[in-house]
Amino acid sequence: MVEESQNTLKVAHQAFEYFRHGLATGEWNQFIDTLTDDFTFWFPVGPYHGLNVGKERAIAFFQYVSETFGEGLSLTLDRVTSNETTVVFEFRDEGIMGGKPYKNRVAISFDIRGDKICGYREYFGSDGKSN
Fold it and tell me: CATH for 2-124?
């Protein structure tokens, strides 16, 4: 159990660094390479609202994120929580969206299978001031 938890954390932390890089630069290849072919993700709003299935759908989603935040997003990691198969990252992000300053508080979870991410869920909400 401990070994499984350590592997889960190792895989998730590396994927999170690739995720952070993708948000900052729009370069998602390293993060996409960490995903299983049957990857699923849940997003709370917009054209990707709800459950999404497949790596191709994920590629389209992360491209959409990069288009939405053309100058990238910077992250400040606040907390990491995990069990044997899931790791949750809580962070603050900020950047420019639609020409206006953007701030938010976000929690994402990665479900780990072996050395890959098989699931992702994102939750966010802020008044734009309490970052």
Answer: 3.10.450.50
